[in-house]
């Protein structure tokens, strides 16, 4: 993205905010993005709504303890392609808690998006949250609709993505991929992985659990990649200012196709530290919110590598294009039975095609081959994932 439109503030001047709070909604070509705060303090000097501004524009200031009052925000930071629309901090003195913060509604991004689709006023949800800490969640919105059905309007397909423009998204994708092919010296590697052990383990796991707790093969692929990237961090980061910068954590961007056309690849944070059930929950939530146009700024700002699974779409294999400034993309095709030699004997095994496109300025084929081997080895021992 190069520009965005600030369409909603979820806080008022003088409200106390903390790291991770969603404070605003920015409209982009791929839908509405929830902007998170990245430090603790008191927010002030909120930028006006409904203005198209470049990426890097200052949206607000955050005042921290012991600092003097900050001036009103007027400056605009330089625009940057593929960077988040941030809340820039300028620290100043911390005043007493504002009365405006009293009665502020805590609501999840998905619930807020659903309320907007159904025409439910946020004020009607105050005090009705059943989520953690009294936060309003999706079931609370649906309950409000059932109580007052006449006040809700049916959502249409065009309502799903606020600001979503398929033609402009396609132009943005073309620009990013064109830049990638011009500037990044790609090299490609592929491998075939025996998915038999993983498939058997997965079937046994799912047989003992209800449908909502079952795992999909994709979550094994995600965790196997995260495990391999721990051993080969040269693929997990960014090429910037003429050199490689390793990412602070393993935050794979999972490619999601959007119903209106196009795709987005938001991050699943710290994939190496999460259990398989946690990753399954995170993946389902991410896909749902991506298609509802309700992603968070942190999910779009820091994917450290992209993973794309086109096997579920029927493709036998995929050779991806690196998303700059990332330095690699891993692709998975479909699992299909093929002849395979096992212990010197010919057998039919479920094989999975995995591919790597990587930046030759950072790594070479020798290391890339080791990364693919690491993914394959992890999938041979799914019980350790």
Which features characterize this protein?
385 residues, alpha+beta, OB fold (Dihydrolipoamide Acetyltransferase, E2P), Chloramphenicol Acetyltransferase, five-stranded mixed beta sheet, 17 strands, 24% strand, globular, transferase, Biotin_lipoyl
Describe this structure in a few short sentences.
Helix content is 26%, strand content 24%. It is of the alpha+beta class and 385 residues long.
Q: What is this structure's SSE topology?
A:
Elements: E1 3-9, E2 16-17, E3 22-28, E4 31-36, E5 41-44, E6 52-54, E7 61-63, H1 109-118, H2 138-147, H3 166-183, E8 186-194, H4 196-207, H5 217-231, E9 237-240, E10 243-246, E11 252-254, E12 256-257, E13 263-264, H6 276-291, E14 294-296, H7 297-301, E15 305-309, E16 328-342, E17 345-359, H8 365-379
Parallel strand pairs: 4-14, 11-15, 15-16
Antiparallel strand pairs: 1-3, 1-6, 2-5, 3-4, 5-7, 8-17, 9-10, 12-13, 16-17
Helix pairs in contact: 1-2, 5-6, 5-8
């Amino acid at each position: 993205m190069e520009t965005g439109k600030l369409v909603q503030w979820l806080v008022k001047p003088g409200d106390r905010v903390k790291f991770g709070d969603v404070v605003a909604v920015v409209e982009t070509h791929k839908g509405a993005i929830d902007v998170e705060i990245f430090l603790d303090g008191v927010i002030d000097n909120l930028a006006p709504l409904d203005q198209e501004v470049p990426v890097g524009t200052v949206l607000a200031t955050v005042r921290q303890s012991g600092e003097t009052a900050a001036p009103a925000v007027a400056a605009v930071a330089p625009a940057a392609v593929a960077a988040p629309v941030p809340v820039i901090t300028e620290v100043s003195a911390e005043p007493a808690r504002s009365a405006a913060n009293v009665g502020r509604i805590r609501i999840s991004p998905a619930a807020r998006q659903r309320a907007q689709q159904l025409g439910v006023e946020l004020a009607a949800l105050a005090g009705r949250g059943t989520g953690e800490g009294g936060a309003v969640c999706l079931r609370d919105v649906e309950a409000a609709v059932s109580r007052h059905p006449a006040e809700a309007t049916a959502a249409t397909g065009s309502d799903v993505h606020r600001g979503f423009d398929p033609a402009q998204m396609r132009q943005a994708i073309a620009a990013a991929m064109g830049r990638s092919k011009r500037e990044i010296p790609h090299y490609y590697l592929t491998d075939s992985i025996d998915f038999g052990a993983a498939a058997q383990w997965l079937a046994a796991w799912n047989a003992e659990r209800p449908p909502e707790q079952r795992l999909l093969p994709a979550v094994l692929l995600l965790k196997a990649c995260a495990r391999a990237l721990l051993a080969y961090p040269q693929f997990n980061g960014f090429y910037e200012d003429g050199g490689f910068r390793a990412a602070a954590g393993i935050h794979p961007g999972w490619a999601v196709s959007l119903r209106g056309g196009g795709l987005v690849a938001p991050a699943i944070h710290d994939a190496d530290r999460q259990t398989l059930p946690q990753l399954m929950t995170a993946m389902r939530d991410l896909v749902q919110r991506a298609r509802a146009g309700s992603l968070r700024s942190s999910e779009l700002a820091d994917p450290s590598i992209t993973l794309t699974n086109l096997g579920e779409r029927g493709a036998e294999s995929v050779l991806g294009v690196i998303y700059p400034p990332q330095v690699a993309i891993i692709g998975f095709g479909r699992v299909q039975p093929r002849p395979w030699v096992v212990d010197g004997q010919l057998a039919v095994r479920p094989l999975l095609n995995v591919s790597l496109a990587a930046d030759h300025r950072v790594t070479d084929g020798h290391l890339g081959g080791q990364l693919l081997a690491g993914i394959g080895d992890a999938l041979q021992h799914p019980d350790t994932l």
